[in-house]
Design brief:
The chain is built from 13 helices and five strands. It is an alpha+beta fold. It has three domains: 42 residues, no CATH class; 360 residues, Up-down Bundle (Outer membrane efflux proteins (OEP)), CATH 1.20.1600; 76 residues, Outer membrane efflux proteins (OEP) (Single Sheet). The chain starts with a helix and ends in a 7-residue tail after the last helix. 31% of the residues are buried.
Length: 498
C-alpha cells in the first residue's frame, strides 16, 4: 500500500511539473492512463496557479524630508486608520451631514449593490465545485405502427420513471474550477475594498463641501461688510464734494470701491448657491437649513496632528491598494485555470431511480434503474487557442501587477503632497495674519491722513484694496488649513465608520 501511495505521489508530481512548462500540444496528448488514474485518486490536490507573492512596494521606505515637511511628527501618535470619522469631526452639524450622506448617497449605494452582486457571483462559481443533483419525473407514450412493431400489430408503448440525476459534474483534477472560484472570491473582496474606499472618499467630500460652503459664506459676509463701509464712505465724500471740500476724482474713486464690493457680493452669492447644490448632491437628499455652516470653524476637527506612520504599513492598508491586490490575486488564479485547460477534463453524468412500462408498477421491487456515463475530454489540437488563452492570463496578471504598483505610487504621492502642505500651512497662516493686521493698520493711518488733508484719497483707496485682499486671503488660508486636515485624514486611510 505504501508503495502504491509513493507511486501516485510521483505521478502527481510529474503532472505538476508538466503543468508549469509550456510543452507542445502533441506531448500533452501523450499522457498515459496511469497518470490519469493517479490524478483521479488525488482529485483536488493539484493546483496549477503560480504561487502568489506580493510585489515589493515601489516607493521609498520613508516619507520625503526637506524644508516643506514638518519635522518632529511623532510616530507614536494615533494614525488615521485608528480614528473613526465620528471621533475626527467634532462639529455636530457636520456629523449629521456625514450620517445623511452615508445613508442616502447613490455612489455608496451602488458600491453596496456591487458587493451583493459579486457575492452572488462568487456563490455561483463556488457551486461548480459540487455535483448538481436534480430530481426528475417523466412519462411518455408512443404508438408503433404495424409495419414497425415486428408483430404485425400496432402497439402502444408507455414508459414512466422517477429518480435523482447528476449532470456534467467535472472532477477538478487540476484545480480549474477551484481557481475560477478563487478568482470570483478575490473579485468579491475587491468590491468590498472599493466600497470602503468610496465611503472614505464620501466622508472627506462631505467635509470638503461643508468647508467650501463655510468659506464662501464668510467671504460673502466680508464683501457685504466691505460694501456697507464703502457705501458710508461714498456718502461722506459725496457730501464733501457737494460742499466743495472734495474733488470729483475722490468721489469717483470711492464709487469704484462700492461697485467692486457689489461685484464680489454677486459672485460669492453664486458660489454659495453652487456649494449648497454640491452638498445636496453628495448627501443624496436636501440639506436641512439648520445644518448649513455660517463661517469657518477653527475647531472643526478634534485632531490637529495625525501621525502618518511608515509608508510600508500605511499604504498597504489603504482600501484602494487592497482592492488592487485582490484583483492581482484574481488574475493570478486565472493563470491556474488557463493552465488546466491543457490537461484532460473528466465529467460525470449519472442517475438512479425507478422505471416501468406501467405507472402502477413504478414502485415495485424490480423497477430499479440507473445510468452512469463518464466522459474524458483530452485536448489534442486546438490551433494554439489554449496557449493564447494562457498568454492572455499571464499578461493580465502582469497588467494587474503594474496597476497595483501604480496605485501604491499614487497613494505615496497623495500623502507626500498633503504632508508638504501640512508642514508649511501654519507658517503661511501666521504670515497671513501678520500681513492682514499690518494692512489694516496702514489703512487706518492713510484714512486719518486723508481726513487731515495730508494725503489724497488715492492712498486711502490703495490701502482699502490691500486690506480687503488680505482679508480674503486670510479666509482662503484658513480654509486651506482645514481642508488639508481632511485630505490628510483621507489619504492616510481614515474615515471608515466604526
Amino acid at each position: 500500500m505504501k508503495k502504491m501511495s509513493k507511486t501516485l505521489c510521483r505521478l502527481a508530481g510529474k503532472i505538476r511539473r508538466r503543468a508549469t512548462t509550456r510543452v507542445a500540444p502533441t506531448r500533452r496528448a501523450g499522457l498515459h492512463f496511469p497518470v490519469l488514474l493517479a490524478a483521479l485518486c488525488l482529485s483536488g490536490c493539484t493546483n496549477l496557479a503560480p504561487l502568489y507573492t506580493r510585489p515589493a512596494a515601489p516607493v521609498p521606505d520613508a516619507w520625503p524630508d526637506g524644508p516643506a515637511y514638518q519635522q518632529g511628527i511623532t510616530p507614536t501618535g494615533k494614525t488615521a486608520v485608528d480614528i473613526a470619522w465620528q471621533e475626527f469631526f467634532r462639529d455636530p452639524q457636520l456629523q449629521e451631514l456625514i450620517a445623511l450622506a452615508l445613508k442616502n448617497n447613490r455612489d455608496l449605494r451602488v458600491a453596496a449593490l456591487n458587493i451583493e452582486r459579486s457575492r452572488a457571483q462568487y456563490r455561483i462559481q463556488r457551486a461548480e465545485l459540487f455535483p448538481q443533483v436534480d430530481g426528475t419525473a417523466a412519462g411518455s407514450g408512443q404508438r408503433v405502427p404495424e409495419s414497425l412493431s415486428g408483430t404485425g400489430k400496432a402497439k402502444t408503448i408507455h414508459q414512466y420513471s422517477v429518480g435523482l440525476g447528476v449532470s456534467s459534474y467535472e472532477l477538478d483534477l487540476f484545480g480549474r474550477v477551484q481557481n475560477l472560484k478563487d478568482q470570483a472570491l478575490e473579485e468579491f473582496l475587491a468590491t468590498e475594498q472599493a466600497r470602503r474606499s468610496i465611503q472614505i472618499s464620501l466622508v472627506a467630500e462631505v467635509a470638503a463641501n461643508y468647508l467650501n460652503l463655510a468659506g464662501d459664506r464668510e467671504r460673502l459676509q466680508l464683501a457685504r461688510d466691505t460694501m456697507e463701509a464703502q457705501q458710508a464712505t461714498f456718502q461722506l465724500i459725496k457730501r464733501r464734494f457737494e460742499l466743495g471740500a472734495s474733488s470729483e476724482l475722490d468721489l469717483r474713486q470711492a464709487q469704484t470701491r462700492v461697485d467692486a464690493a457689489r461685484v464680489d457680493i454677486a459672485r460669492y452669492t453664486t458660489l454659495v448657491a453652487q456649494d449648497e447644490n454640491a452638498l445636496t448632491l453628495v448627501l443624496g437628499s436636501p440639506v436641512p437649513a439648520g445644518l448649513l455652516p455660517q463661517a469657518l470653524d477653527e475647531n472643526l476637527t478634534a485632531v490637529q496632528d495625525i501621525a502618518p506612520g511608515l509608508p510600508s504599513g500605511m499604504l498597504l492598508a489603504r482600501p484602494d491598494v487592497l482592492a488592487a491586490e485582490n484583483q492581482l490575486k484574481g488574475y493570478n488564479a486565472n493563470i491556474g485555470a488557463a493552465r488546466a485547460a491543457f490537461f484532460p477534463r473528466i465529467t460525470l453524468t449519472g442517475s438512479v431511480g425507478l422505471a416501468s412500462d406501467e405507472l402502477s408498477g413504478l414502485f415495485q421491487s424490480d423497477s430499479g434503474a440507473w445510468s452512469f456515463a463518464p466522459q474524458i475530454t483530452l485536448p489534442i489540437f486546438d490551433a494554439g487557442s489554449n496557449q493564447a488563452k494562457l498568454k492572455v492570463a499571464e499578461v493580465d496578471r502582469d497588467i494587474a501587477v503594474a496597476r497595483y504598483e501604480k496605485t501604491i505610487q499614487t497613494a505615496f504621492r497623495e500623502v507626500a503632497d498633503a504632508l508638504a502642505q501640512r508642514g508649511t500651512i501654519d507658517d503661511q497662516m501666521a504670515a497671513q495674519r501678520s500681513l492682514t493686521e499690518a494692512t489694516e493698520a496702514s489703512y487706518l493711518l492713510s484714512r486719518a491722513r486723508y481726513e487731515q488733508g495730508i494725503d489724497s484719497y488715492l492712498t486711502v483707496l490703495d490701502s482699502q484694496r490691500s486690506l480687503y485682499s488680505a482679508q480674503q486671503d486670510l479666509i482662503a488660508t484658513r480654509l486651506t488649513r482645514q481642508q488639508n486636515l481632511v485630505t490628510l485624514y483621507k489619504v492616510l486611510g481614515g474615515g471608515a465608520a466604526q
